[in-house]
């Protein structure tokens, strides 16, 4: 469980944050404002701000995931643990959408799916 947490925080969160940052900046450029582009004057700074904020959100999701499976180490079924983790993640994403006033962060639900799939594979093929 701890190895999975470290991998999720260090690799998966990093990759997902970079992908979301790039996609959101390109979507903003092509569909909305044409002001923010990675190739523009302050493109890297905008990318880094998005990346850093998304990385923090992904680390929080990893912490929720770890807590749901660590606290639920009792006799709770894996399905209940997944429901607890995904509920906490949906509440986090809903709060972010409410605070930003935008529906764009709803795409972070894909991160919950990725973390759940990784955890499911780990639970299925792990000897422990």
Describe the protein's architecture and organization:
The protein has one domain (2-125). 78% of the residues lie in helices and 0% in strands. The chain has 128 residues and is mainly α. α1 (2-32) runs antiparallel to α2 (43-71), α1 packs antiparallel against α4 and α2 packs antiparallel against α3. The radius of gyration is 16 Å and the shape is elongated. The model has no long low-confidence stretch (mean pLDDT 78).
Strands, total number: 0
**Strand proportion:** under 5%
Oligomer: single chain
Mean pLDDT reading: 78
Report, as a whole number of angstroms, the end-to-end distance: 9 Å
Shape, principal axes of CA atoms:
elongated
Task: Give start-end ranges of low-pLDDT stretches.
Answer: none
Overall helicity? over 70%
Structural class: mainly alpha
Order of helices and strands: HHHH
Number of helices: 4
**Radius of gyration of CA atoms, rounded to a whole number:** 16 Å
The largest β sheet comes out as: none
- In total, how many domains does the architecture comprise? 1
């Amino acid at each position: 469980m701890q190895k999975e947490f470290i991998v999720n925080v260090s690799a998966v969160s990093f990759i997902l944050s970079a992908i979301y940052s790039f996609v959101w900046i390109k979507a903003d450029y092509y569909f909305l404002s044409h002001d923010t582009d990675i190739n523009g004057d302050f493109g890297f700074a905008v990318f880094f701000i998005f990346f850093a904020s998304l990385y923090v959100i992904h680390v929080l999701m990893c912490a929720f995931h770890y807590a749901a499976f660590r606290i639920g180490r009792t006799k709770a079924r894996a399905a209940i643990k997944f429901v607890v983790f995904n509920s906490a993640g949906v509440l986090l994403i809903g709060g972010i959408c409410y605070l930003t006033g935008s529906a764009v962060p709803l795409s972070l639900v894909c991160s919950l799916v990725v973390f759940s799939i990784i955890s499911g594979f780990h639970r299925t093929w792990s000897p422990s």
